[in-house]
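WP5 quarterly update. Target: PAS domain S-box-containing protein/diguanylate cyclase (GGDEF)-like protein. Source organism: Actinocrispum wychmicini. Length: 279 aa.
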Amino acid sequence: GAKTQGKNRWEIYDETRRARAVDRVAIASSLRQALRDDRFVLHFQPVVELETGLPVAVESLVRLDDPGRGLLPPSAFIQVAEDSGLIVPIGTYVLEQACRQLAEWRAAGVVTQSLRTSVNLSARQATQPDLARTVARALSQANLEPTALALELTETVLMEADTATLRQLEELREMGVDLGIDDFGTGYSSLSYLKRLPVSIIKVDRSFVAGLVTDPSDREIVTAVIRLGQALGLTTIAEGVEDVAQFTVLRELGCDQAQGYLLGRPVAGPPALPSGVAG
Ligand code: C2E
Ligand code: MG
Ligand code: MG
Ligand code: MG
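Structure tokens (predicted):
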């Protein structure tokens, strides 16, 4: 009857919930172990200047080298890392490794001396009272100038920033570190924080870029975001550029930089220079 069915449903739900909780505990403990074993790995995706087609930066993206399953993407572990607080030590590792890697490439002459790097910051990291000090340490350990680094934050994190966090962000900006809004257009829609916060970069979310050529409303949105960025003196970066038509439209619209599979997937090594161009 209905009662039995209801009970079964509950049991199934309860089982699933228990399995998920066990799963999360297992993931958290494997993240702790991965930190000890040094199994977080960075991949780097080129960010290209639209006018010249040259790489001007890389975005540093974390992966987890799992002994059984190979390289895992952030979607497999970032949420658990965030909820457990492990994102803080993982994030510090990412910052330090991103700076170290850029400095190594520059020293080896495999990238230009002006190439920069960007790192994603989670909500937990952004609210750490020693954020600015952690970033300053990562830079000085690698002997990198602060302008070599950009930090990417989401709209939600920026909207929720309290006075103490804002002070940290301002300190970073005063040091010369760039702050960017990641996935712009997908979070809260209030724009007042653009005026309030020391951001210098807007990254147009790839969901809008995906429809840029085929969907008139996506094209209007991308156009508006680029104009807004220009009006406020910000650098605009389009994410998720996958074909030449998107690239061409973005250049016509006056977008500054682009990132996406067309220009290069995230890889372990330095960005390739287009053929015929010397470093
Ligand atoms: P994100 O910061 O927006 O990074 C861009 C994501 O889009 C990357 O996925 C990248 O591989 C993917 N992507 C780049 N170009 C294209 C394209 O042309 N088409 C498509 N379909 N995808 C493209 P990834 O590496 O899996 O990272 C996913 C998200 O995980 C990142 O999104 C970021 O929010 C988060 N993440 C990555 N590394 C870190 C980290 O070190 N710390 C924190 N807190 N979050 C990170
Ligand atoms: Mg990002
Ligand atoms: Mg993004
Ligand atoms: Mg995105």
